[in-house]
Amino acid sequence: MKHHYSRLLTILMLAGTMILSGDAFAQKEKADAKPKKGKNAKQEEPKKEEDKFADLVKKCSKSEGLFTIWRDTVTGKSYLELREDQLNKEFIYFSHITDGPASAGYFRGSYGDSKIIRFTKVFDRIEIIHENTDYYYDPESALFLAKDANINDPVLANEKIEVTSKDGKTVLIDGDAIFLSEKFQMVKFPTPPGQPSALGGLSKERTRIKALNNYPKNTEIKVNYVYENSSPTRFETDMTDPRYITVGYQHSLLEMPENDYQPRADDPRIGYFNTQVDDMTSFDETPYRDMIHRWNLVKKEPNAKLSEPVEPITYWIENTTPKEFRPIVKEACERWNIAFEKAGFKNAVVCLEQPDDATWDAGDIRYNVIRWTSSPLPPFGGYGPSFVNPRTGQILGADIMIELVALINRVRAEGVFSTAGFPTDEEFSKMDEQFGRNPFLCFASQHTNHNLAFGITASSALNMDQAAEKEIVRQMLYRLILHETGHTLGLMHNMRASTMLSPAEIKDKAKVAENGLCNSVMEYPAFNYATDPKDQTLYCDVNPGPYDLWVIEYGYSPGLSDPIAEKFRLNKIAERSSDPKLAFGNDADDMRSSGSGIDPDVNIYDLSSDPVAYGSERCDLVNKILPKLKDKFTKGNESYQALLMAYLLATGEYGTQLRVMTRQIGGVHYNRANHGQPTDRNPLVPVSEDKQRAAMKALEKYAFGPQAWSASSDLLQFLLPQRRGFDHFGQNQDPHIHQRILNMQRECLNHLLHPEVMQRITDSQLYGNTYTLDKVMTELTNAIFQADAKSSVSTIRQNLQVMYVETLVKGLASDSRHDRVSRGMMLSEMKRIDQMMASGVSPDGLTKAHRDHVRTIIRKALES
To answer: Which of the ends of the chain has fewer CB neighbours closer than 10 A, N or C?
Structure first.
């Protein structure tokens, strides 16, 4: 034991010696490190700690705001600064186009998505996360614990941290990598299969930041995206050189609003744009928590029946607006205050003029601007988008875009004689393909342009004075501004609004003064031009209608703090939807395209509760003015271009009303009143047989009959367009009269013989339709064939009859979508037509050839 103790003591002594030696060595090293004194001693400076952050930013200019942006003063390269307190915090990203080739869908003021993003630090990188706001999980539900399962929050960008500040609280990432790419938002739109894009590949060398605008609550980065394509396939005049196309784009980063805004529930009986949210913990049949889009309007005096808002909805008339229009624009915009008074607000909407020396531009998202442009190839005439907080539906900003073309007497697509001046299924389909991605795009101004041009044409032909023509222009502009402003307040289209009054009531000045022509300015109604000046009331509405007042009350009247009481209050407002003056149907319901929609009351370009009667009056008006056009639109030493355009406008209006008439046949009225809500109509009610038969009779007279197209015969030989250089290469200059008429007739048959319509005629027979498919087809065939069964068939009718038979043949093809009942009727009518042709009289060679042609088509179809 003693031996072990002595050994331990020896070890401890040795260890102490080593420690002492180590201390001495350390002291010696410290002494050696001291600066040597003396004449020849070398002076060494202490080494500075490296500061890469300071080294980088000293070469840059600084733009401070919500986010600080640094830009290299030599290369222009940008860096986005992120502070520690900005990480894992929600921000709103919004984008819009500031300029581009409108013919390709890239036009000033086109809004992109607003989305919620956050910046997250992951080791030495920053991720930009796009948060999914489409779903809701009740925190009280056990399923809340699985709220992140199978829901994608995409990583928009993953960027390396360039430098970190000395205190470690601030980092810089490559700004060019996110702002000059399409990581935040897709800029180049995908195109349908087989259709080439106007844009080539993104040029990194040419794409650059154009401007930075920074404010305490938002940061805006304007970028010129340049796309290059060495072998372009699309050429338009507004592209200049299609190999290099510039799209001006603005990225906006916004602070998440912090206020007492309460989201308001959507209701299917009322038409607001909305943010759709699915409740993933609800067992309801409709587990929706959809929120309407509206401004945060708060009363200054909460207990007052009528109070000014704390902050009004303010619009600025951009200084690009023609000065003669500015008073009308201001009046029309502020006319919405009539509706807001129903919601308890006065002076809720304010419209100011941007001075010419203003230091801000219309791209600044802090200003809501009514902007004017005059584009070479405008895709629209008016446009009223807004952007919102995706969490709540609160509108954060909005602009109104108006093209000068809306007020110019110009026919769109005037070079295409056969379809100019009236809409076709093909045109609507192209619009859907090109602009369907944009729910805010509005064609009200195109419609206004056509209505205005037709109104001026009719007034000139009927010797109306210039004062009346000026009033037409004033009312049209007034209504256009009302319409587009309505969109920026959150309102959808209401394509059912035009059926509020009967044809007789539309001519009653007192009745029109009471509520207007339509229940809403959010429609595309027909232009109200009376054949007899004594019957003339408004040409179009200049005040918000009953529906507009009701819907603003729903959206903007102050809410209650108790959620249950608030739900009851809103339902009491919405229950008034049964009132005929408050009828509503949006674009998804309308019947503009063949086979779409079911309710003929929900349509565009119609007017009155009896669109067939009103359309017939309009066709009579066109037939009245057509013979007068030559004298009114040929003057002096001028070409016949004005006469040609007047002809296109008049006949285009005629063809449009024919389309409207067809929608009654096979139509079914819907009623979206909730169960238990006071109403006198079932949810689905077929159009009465009398109304359907009236439509068929009108079509026989104005579209299919032998005398339907005779009013313009005296001016056809003068329809020569004015030559402009070599622009008419590939286009024969003779007017294709037969093709134009046939296109209008085809638009009628496209709907009447559409598989959806024919099957609905049979389906609706089970719940009240008495105008059955056999009656429809028999009367349609008679309208097309019977009048000239024993006489010569005009070439116009020959075209119609052959097209009708060819459509029946297609309906029997193996790839046809027609149901079995429809096929049976189509086969029966083909056989009946064959008998009519066999027994028909042929007084001339053309008629004989035609009858043989029709029989040959039928025989080949039956044989196959």
So the answer is: N
